[in-house]
Specification:
heterodimer, A: alpha+beta, Alpha-Beta Plaits, 3-stranded mixed β-sheet, 9 strands, 25% helix, B: 305 residues, mainly alpha, Formate dehydrogenase/DMSO reductase fold, two-stranded antiparallel sheet
């Protein structure tokens, strides 16, 4: 059985946020909506200070808390482990947003769809065709670019990353690159104490 | 919410919606949701107490608070109100869904009970089932919101069994207090022993609520990073004044002193009820506002560098 997951090599990440831009472009995300973000943090004390980067994305948890609390059945897991949201079924109650420990759910507000990226309601043709996939008042999140995955491609953030800091693949296949990286370089999951069994791993 | 968002960024360690690693507030359940929770718990509480005391004005008040107030504020919170009916679909896994079933039973059978009591229009065979099913629905409504919050692993302050307990205790306390305010003169005149029993129950509930709040704070103080931030927000930061003065002082200590030392009359009972309801509402709002998510570890923390 396929179980898709992602590995972030934090040693390779340079914090360029090309992944963020690629994701916004691929998914036609409105202003203020991000499915992936590269967070930065300053570590150490003057004069020994450095900045580190932490790419974040929906972890497509095996025991997804967002799926468990969804009262309408809008959040569901595919057979390949990708956690999806059906905007047509979402009622916008926000249960998923307060259940997700990784803060990866975003509400689509009406103003975001009507104002557009440049404000004042002047939508570009790109926005006009892209915003049709969203329904106002519903919650949305990353779906690992499921259309691209179904077509045998990597998610847009992975395909764009200039340093190969993001690796996507089948966690159930012991010979896949993600499985080897996790095994050889001891992959760590974010907030493991939350018992959500994330399918995103960090290596250093 | 605007002020809170500003502090969200300004408070040390909090990062708001920036691309930085740090603490974030939960931002999707705000005042309308807190008001809906307040209406649900207080409405179900007054309904339960009134059903047990066979006090019809309280039964009707409970149905109105939940059926109208809670429904209105829930719908004003929902992103897509027209599809809210879909929330009934997953009672097998979601407390929101179970709660909606509870509301349907509570209001539906509660109304049948009122019609039967006031107009006698309900067939004999339905009277007892309506009474018990309405009561069962109200019991679900008085606790389910606490369970919905305690199932959020994201917010450590909420992720505790004390949440459903506080929901139930606050709901019953509000119920007893409203019944007292509505019926104190009636009870005084007709049955003084029942009055004494209800006031004793009210005092016990006040102490239990007070202890539950202290336990919640204690758990947060010794909990995860996010819970500790919530504790500081509620006890020494910008939420401290409304929490300590409003929730604990006006909401629990003041009514307890009133009930212990002031003579039982309409004015005392009304004052105690208003202060209890004020404290409960503030508690609901502030517990939402103090919801902090644990930060995702930086690579330095994660890999011990």
């Amino acid at each position: 059985m396929t179980s898709y997951g992602m590995v972030f090599d934090v040693k390779r990440c340079i914090g360029c946020n090309a992944c963020t831009v690629a994701c916004k472009q691929e998914n036609s995300l409105p202003d203020g909506v991000f499915f992936t973000r590269t967070l930065s943090a300053e570590v150490g004390e003057f004069p020994n200070v450095s900045r580190t980067y932490l790419p974040t994305i929906c972890n497509h948890c095996e025991d997804a808390p967002c799926e468990k609390v969804c009262p309408s059945g809008a959040t569901y897991s595919r057979d390949d482990g990708i956690v999806m949201v059906d905007g047509a079924l979402c009622i916008g109650c926000g249960s998923c947003a307060v259940a997700c420990p990784y803060d990866m759910r975003t509400k689509i507000e009406e103003t975001q769809l009507t104002n557009g990226l440049f404000g004042e309601g002047n939508l570009t043709p790109f926005e006009e065709q892209g915003y049709t996939r969203f329904e106002c008042g519903t919650f949305t999140k990353c779906d690992f670019c499921s259309e691209r995955v179904d077509a045998g491609k990597d998610p847009a953030c992975v395909a764009t990353c200039p340093t190969d800091a993001r690796v996507f693949g089948d966690l159930d296949n012991p010979d896949s690159k993600v499985s080897r990286l996790i095994r050889d370089r001891v992959g760590r999951q974010p907030l493991p104490e939350k018992n959500t069994r994330p399918k995103v791993f960090y290596i250093d | 919410m605007a002020n809170i968002s500003l502090k969200n960024v300004l408070r040390p360690g909090f990062v708001g919606r920036t691309f930085k690693s740090g603490y974030r507030f939960q931002r999707y359940w705000d005042t309308p949701m807190a008001t809906a929770f307040f209406c649900g718990e207080s409405g179900a509480g007054v309904f339960i107490v009134s059903m047990l005391l066979n006090f019809m004005p309280g039964v009707i008040l409970g149905l109105l608070i939940t059926g109208v107030g809670k429904t209105f504020f829930h719908l004003s919170h929902m992103g897509v109100p027209s599809k809210s009916w879909r929330a009934i679909l997953r009672p097998d896994r979601s407390w929101i869904s179970r709660g909606l079933w509870g509301i349907i039973f509570f209001v539906g059978f509660g109304v049948i009970h009122v019609i039967s009591e006031l107009f006698g229009l309900v067939p004999e065979v339905l009277i007892k089932p309506a009474y018990f099913l309405g009561l069962a629905g109200a019991i679900v409504v008085v606790v389910y919101q606490g369970f919905a919050m305690s199932h959020s692993t994201a917010i450590s302050l909420w992720n505790t069994g004390l949440m459903p307990l506080s929901s139930m205790l606050y709901g019953l306390l509000s119920g007893v207090s409203m019944v007292m305010a509505l019926g104190v003169l009636d009870l005084y005149a007709t049955d003084e022993s029942q009055l004494l029993m209800v006031t004793l129950f009210q005092k016990i509930l006040l102490v239990a609520v007070f202890m539950t709040i202290l336990s919640l704070l204690h758990g947060a103080k010794h909990g995860s990073k996010g819970a500790r931030q919530s504790y500081e927000l509620l006890t020494s930061d910008f939420l401290a004044r409304p929490f300590l003065i409003g929730v604990i002082g006006i909401g629990t200590i003041m009514p307890f002193l009133l009930l212990m030392f002031a003579p039982v009359n309409f004015l005392t009972t009304l004052t105690a009820t208003v202060s209890i309801l004020f404290g409960f509402y503030l508690y609901r709002v502030l517990i939402f506002k103090a919801g902090v998510m644990d930060p995702i570890l930086t690579p330095a923390d994660m890999f011990g560098k």
